[in-house]
Write a structure and sequence with these properties.
single chain; mainly alpha; AhpD-like; 72% helix; globular
Length: 180
């Protein structure tokens, strides 16, 4: 399993990350599709080759073709929107909010999965991307769609653990040329 291989690749100083990674599939509020879509979208958003190479094959097995595509679409679109809306927010000039965004997001009309799953993946990727506006927008859509806070927080936990694992694995490669 991908998560076991990732746990084995983590160095001893990252034991808490290993434990956190191990608990992602054991103690979760997420459905199988929500979990693996979140794992895939966040792995892609992390930009970590070692992480994505482990997660992607398992996610492909666990997800339907539509869900696989939707999770990757969420990662791609949020890579764009997180930068755009985070920058608008940081500029703190309300005049920018009056300008049209001009971003192509046709995939949002029909993502191929339940709207709440797509929103959940977008929220998790926005957590990785650090965009407060996107986080607020997706969290609001999820809550309006009836999703419980515990489920939303679980997706954020997945994003946090995967981001830390990606950073640690990439540091090991930079320092030693290989993972532990």
């Amino acid at each position: 399993m991908a998560l076991d291989a990732l746990r084995a690749a983590l160095p001893p100083h990252a034991k808490d990350l290993s434990l956190g990674l191990g608990s992602l599939t054991n103690h979760t509020e997420l459905t199988e599709q929500q979990l693996w879509g979140t794992l895939l979208a966040c792995a892609e958003a992390s930009r970590s080759g070692p992480l994505l190479r482990e997660v992607e094959p398992e996610a492909r097995k666990a997800l339907s073709e539509d869900a696989y595509r939707a999770a990757r679409t969420a990662a791609a679109l949020m890579a764009m929107t997180n930068v755009f809306y985070r920058t608008r927010h940081l500029l703190a000039d309300p005049e920018y909010d009056a300008l049209p965004a001009g971003l192509r997001m046709n995939a949002l009309r029909s993502p191929g999965v339940a709207r709440t799953d797509f929103e959940l993946w977008s929220l998790a990727v926005s957590a990785v991307g650090g965009c407060g506006r996107c986080l607020q927008s997706h969290e609001r859509a999820l809550r309006e769609g009836g999703m419980r806070r515990e489920v939303i927080q679980e997706a954020i936990r997945v994003a946090a653990v995967l981001t830390a694992v990606a950073s640690t694995l990439d540091a090991e490669i930079a320092l030693h040329g290989v993972t532990a």
